[in-house]
Amino acid sequence: MTDEATTHATGTVEWFDAERGVGLISSDDGAAPCAVHAGTLRACGVASLAAGDRVRFQVRTEGGKRTATDLALLPAVQRWENEGGAVNPSA
């Protein structure tokens, strides 16, 4: 039996170190931050991450550690709408 669990989340990239191939994502739901690894980015077709990027991801929890999987960047307009925007900023 495993203590593995998977949930869906959105959040913000706190930092990503391309040299080390690791970063941290804070979840919008206030849960503990998730680690993200370069292998996940490659598997999901994401070229790179930068601090402040908004992402949708699955949270895999195993052995008490939270890791982001199945990650996708949120488009800028969707990010803006999710943050309560009332007028399209590109109009």
Automatic annotation (TrEMBL):
<dbReference type="GO" id="GO:0005829">
    <property type="term" value="C:cytosol"/>
</dbReference>
<dbReference type="InterPro" id="IPR012340">
    <property type="entry name" value="NA-bd_OB-fold"/>
</dbReference>
<dbReference type="Pfam" id="PF00313">
    <property type="entry name" value="CSD"/>
</dbReference>
<feature type="domain" description="CSD">
    <location>
        <begin position="8"/>
        <end position="73"/>
    </location>
</feature>
<protein>
    <recommendedName>
        <fullName>CSD domain-containing protein</fullName>
    </recommendedName>
</protein>
<dbReference type="InterPro" id="IPR002059">
    <property type="entry name" value="CSP_DNA-bd"/>
</dbReference>
<dbReference type="InterPro" id="IPR011129">
    <property type="entry name" value="CSD"/>
</dbReference>
<dbReference type="GO" id="GO:0003676">
    <property type="term" value="F:nucleic acid binding"/>
</dbReference>
